[in-house]
Each structure stands twice: as structure tokens, then as C-alpha cells.
Amino acid sequence: MGLLRSDRAAAVKNHSVCCISCGEVNAALAVDFRCARCGDLLEVQFANWSAGAAPDPGELKAVWCERRTSNQPLDASGVWRFREMLPGLDEWSSAITLREGNTPLYDLPQCARSAGVERLRAKHQGMNPTGSFKDTGMTVAISFARQNKFRWVACASTGNTSASMAAYAARGGMRSLVVVPDGKIAWGKLSQSFDYGALTCQLGTDFDGCVRVLDDIIRRYPIYLLNSVNPYRLEGQKTAAIELLEQLDWQVPHHVIVPGGNLGNNSALGKAFVEMKRLGLVHSLPKVSVIQAEGANPLYRTVHERQGKELVSVEADTLATAIRIGNPASWKKSLRVLNTTGGCVEQVSEAEIAVAKAEIGADGVGCEPASAVTLAGLKKMVRTGFVRATDSVVLVLTGHVLKDPEYTIKFHRGDLSVPRMADEKFRALTVQQRKTPVVLDANPDAVLRAIEAEDKRDG
Ligand code: F0G
Questions:
Q1: E strand or H helix at 122, and its extent?
Q2: Average pLDDT over residues 184-204
Q3: How far apart are CA 90 and CA 209, in angstroms?
């Protein structure tokens, strides 16, 4: 298949990078991606959409659909397929892609019943090449890193960003530096970083401490920062929202529920929904809500204790290690999404997370602990009346179940210890969801008795 109409011209600079607070256009980007004038975060803007050059929504839908049958690497990517809504590279063909995106939208019938809604769906971003949603942003940002001739890229991470960055750096022939909190990231994620060849530094601090160390390094060595303060990351992550609406035949759901850590992802998805409305692809917005773990709840506290006026940083602790973050970079962007879309922020306990994770597993889908906060949060939002039983709801599952097998094994064995709750209480609250493994002699009768016992329990 040849290139489609909108590809014929080489990609041109179709965007500017502006400050979210003072509006300053940052023509040259600082190494920390902060505004040169006021130091706040930057975002990509597409000014020419307003200048009468906005793409036609019907044509966009048709082109994106047509690309699904193409074998061109750029079209086969569920990110670059939507390139009309992405910042343009000098050459589209220089994109570093692993065929990211194209993730499934699953029905979760049992979870719907337990949450009290008629229908519940999950957009499973854990089905990306390295097992998390980070790939959708990484493909875009790392392509800009290579375009800008960087040899080294780096990130501080709770494990998924680093796994993703290491993979894309390897594909792009670049070196990567991973800075992670020692002992606080899941084995699956750490192992990926090794295998993809990153220089992996495990520091005796938490994620927020890793961010501070890296902030110093990027000023002393030519390294391209790939944390979500990098606005190009969020541009790629937008595409999950576009793909979701395409999968829903452009019917906008009432609610989209996202886990909140450093708060880049909900900001990206919210930006995408707003931009799709601006382009006329849809005519309404879903309410985008954020769920945090009780032990890592800075956004929740910022909204409930300070009405969003200033960030309440916390000392984070949760077994959902992906979102063990106390000082989130993108809190202002995230608040803007809550306000624009009418979403809310909830917090959930370690027991609620564990139960929700097992329930998502029992629907045959599975996810890592941080993703399960979405179902736990939904249950609360149904109880408070924020979500009605007839509302259409989509959970964004961010990481694959195999990212953190240690959590899952310990949970089912009954020896998971969570922060801020006695082991006995935790076990009592989660007993129904635990599938305790059975260790038996190598004897068919013993196995048959185990089957009969299950049948009896099932009734
Ligand atoms: N879910 C998973 C599985 C994650 O890995 C993360 C973040 C989040 C949710 C939260 O997303 O930060 O955009 O609000 N992980 C980062 C990392 C911090 O380093 O892998 P967010």
C-alpha cells in the first residue's frame, strides 16, 4: 500500500511547545522541559488547527480506518496511525516503533456486577509491546530524542517507564540510563531493563528521590529526559483515547477511569478528548477521573484539603509500586483535566486494590496492582452516586498482569503484607478472592478430591 494522502508532504513542524501557566512559546526546549520564563510544565499545541488548517473529521476517521489494513510500520503502529494529531517529525519514516498501541477493549462482566454497573469495559494498555501504556508515549518522545541527535536517554521510574525506554532505546540504537528506587520496583519490570541493555542504577531512595538525582544529571551530561514532564511523551499517550473512541464507534462513554501516579497519563488522555472535540471528531467529553492508592494520594489530598490550589506532597507507600509517588510532576495538568471534563479523584485502600486486581483476573483479563485501583475506585464512585448503574464506563488498565507476579503469588498464598493494615485484617478482607494453591502428592485420587472440593464450593 502506498502512502496515504496526508503523508505525501514530508512531516513539517505542525506544533509549538507552550507553558501551561504563562503561555510562553518555548522555541528551544530546556533539558528539564520546564518553561524558560516561569519554570512550569510545557505542552504541545497545534496552533494551525485554529488558523483554518484543522483536518476534516470525516476524512481523519476514514484515513485512520484505512491504515488498519496497511503493513507499513507507521500505519501498523496504533500510535503513528493517528499521526495527524501528533507532533510531526522531520521525516515520519524515522519514527522508532515496536507496533505499539492497537490494544484490546475488553468487556468485564463479573467486575461490572461487583461494581454495580450494567456494562463495564477495560482498555488494556498493558497489552503494549513492553507490557504497559508507556510504550505509546515512548515511541514518540524517543523519536524526537534521536531526531535531536542524542546518544543517551534517561528516566527515573517506578519500573514501567524504564522498561519501555530501555526497549525503544535499544531499537533506536541509543544508550539508556535507568534510575529506579532500590527494592521498590517489581521484578518483571527490572528484568526488562536489564535485558534491553539499559545502564540500570538502583538508588537507595524512593521515586521522588530518583527524580531529584536525575534532574542534576541532565544538567551535567548530554542526556535526553524521558519522564512524563517531556511533553512529547504525553502526545503519544493521547492515542489510547483516540483508539478507544474508534473502538466505541465514536460513541463517547460517560466515564473514563485512570490510575494516578506522576499524573501524566490522565493528563494525556484528557488532552486527547478535548482535542478530539475541538476537531469535531466527537461532540462531548467523557468524565475523566483519577484513582490513587491511599498511601500515595497527593492529588486526592490536594483536591480535598487545598481545593486544588497547591500540591500536598506525601511520603508515598503502597504495594501498587507503579504509583508509589508522593510529589507528582503533572498535578496541574491533571487538575485541569478533572475540571474540564467534570471528573473526580478517589483514593482506595490496599485491600480494595488487591480484591479488585483478583476480580479483574477472574474475568480472564488480569493486570498489575496499580491498574486495579480503577475498579476499586469505580466501586466507590458508584456508592457515592457519581457513577450511575446505566452509565457507560471504561477502565484504563495500564500494566500487564505478569509485570508483578510476586504480588499475585503472595496474595493468593495469603502471605502478602500491606502497609497500614494488620496481616490478619487484610487476609479477612480478601479471603473470597484468594485462590490458595494446593500442594499434593503425585496421586490422581488426591487431585480428584481437590476438584470435588472446588465443585462443592461452587455449588
Ligand atoms: N499504572 C502503571 C502500571 C504505571 O506504571 C504508572 C506509572 C501509572 C499507572 C501512573 O501513571 O504516572 O502517568 O499517573 N508509572 C511510572 C513509571 C511512574 O515510572 O513507570 P502516571
A1: strand 120-124
A2: 97
A3: 35
Confidence (pLDDT) at 2: 33
Whether 257 lines ligand 1, by a CB cut-off of 6 Å, is no
Identify the band that residue 11 occupies on the pLDDT scale cut at 50, 70 and 90.
Answer: low
Q: What is the pTM of this model?
A: 0.97
Rounded to the nearest angstrom, the distance between the alpha carbon of 357 and the centre of ligand 1 is 16
Q: Which among 441, 395, 398 is positioned nearest to 114, based on CA atoms?
A: 395
**Per-residue pLDDT reduced to its tens digit, 343-360:** 999 999 999 999 999 999
Torsion of CA 102, 103, 105, 109, to 10 degrees: 160
- Ligand 1 atom nearest the C-alpha of 258 is 9
Going by their DSSP bridges, the two strands 120-124 and 105-107 should be labelled as antiparallel
Atom of ligand 1 nearest to the CA of 403: 3
Confidence of residue 413 (pLDDT cuts 50, 70, 90): very high
CA-based max dimension of the chain: 76
- pLDDT the model gives residue 50: 81
Q: How far apart are CA 135 and CA 77, in angstroms?
A: 11
Do 190 and 223 meet the contact criterion of CB atoms below 8 Å apart?
no
Centroid of ligand 1 to alpha carbon of 411 (angstroms) = 21
Mark residue 228 as left, alpha or beta (left: phi above 0; alpha: psi -120 to 50; beta: remaining).
alpha
Instruction: Tell me which residue has its CA closest to atom 3 in ligand 1.
Output: 399
408, pLDDT greater than 50: yes
Specify the pLDDT at position 13: 82
Amino acid identity at 293:
A
CA–CA dist 255, 112 (Å, integer): 14
- Percent of the chain topping pLDDT 70: 97
The response to whether residue 181 sits with its C-beta less than 6 Å from ligand 1 reads: no
Residue 5: the pLDDT is 46
DSSP 3-state percent helix, strand, coil across the chain (nearest 5): 45, 15, 40
Give the Å distance between the CA of 23 and the centre of ligand 1. Answer: 27
- How far are the Cα atoms of 80, 273, 417 from residue 67, in angstroms, in the given order? 10, 21, 48
Nearest-atom index, ligand 1, CA of 261: 14
Whether the CB-CB separation of 233 and 155 falls below 8 Å is answered with no
Most ligand 1 atoms within 8 A of CB, residue of 132, 135, 155, 263 to mutate: 132
Contacts of 76 (CB under 8 A, 6+ apart): 70, 97, 99, 102
Closest CA to 275 of 63, 53, 54, 14: 54
C-alpha distance from residue 111 to each of 58, 352, 360, 366 (Å):
35, 13, 6, 12
Protein residue with least CA distance to atom 6, ligand 1:
322
